[in-house]
Amino acid sequence: MFCNHFKITEQPFSERTPIARIIKDERIKQAMARLQYFLSDGTIALITGQTGVGKSSLIKLFLHSLEGTTNSYSSVYLHITDLRATSLLRLIVSGLGEKPKHTKGLIFSQITEISQN
């Protein structure tokens, strides 16, 4: 639809946008600074926001900035809009390669433990 109407060759709103084509405006610069702060002083980060604000682009840029670093990081990308807290925590633990425990508190502790290893 967009390609035909605007006579362009690529989808302008693709989740697979190459890093070089992501516009690094002031919002992205501020968010990257916050993520860099998290990287030095944090343990777990969660990025949320309304549809279309640039969460996926931000995450793509941030993960790209980690390439070549000596530290190892685990990222879990969940593209789901409606989950209960326990289900979200279970998906995170599964995404980190572990079998989730049974209660919300134990699962959260499990995530914290995984992230510190």
Structural class: mainly alpha
> Roughly how many Å apart are the termini?
47 Å
Shape: globular
The percent range for helix content is: 40-55%
**How much of the sequence is in beta strands?**
under 5%
Total number of strands: 0
- Poorly predicted sequence stretches spanning 5 or more consecutive residues: none
Rg computed from alpha carbons, rounded to a whole number of angstroms: 17 Å
The main β sheet shows up as:
none
Q: Oligomeric form of this entry?
A: single chain
Q: How many DSSP H or I helices? A: 5
Order of helices and strands: HHHHH
What is the mean pLDDT? Answer: 84
Task: Please sum up the structure shown.
The chain is mainly α and 117 residues long. The chain contains 5 helices and no strands.
Give a description of the structure:
There is one protein chain. By secondary structure, the chain is mainly α. The chain is built from five helices and no strands. Helix 4 (85-95) runs parallel beside helix 5. The N and C termini lie far apart (47 Å).
Element layout with pairings:
Elements: H1 2-6, H2 26-41, H3 55-66, H4 85-95, H5 104-116
Helix pairs in contact: 4-5
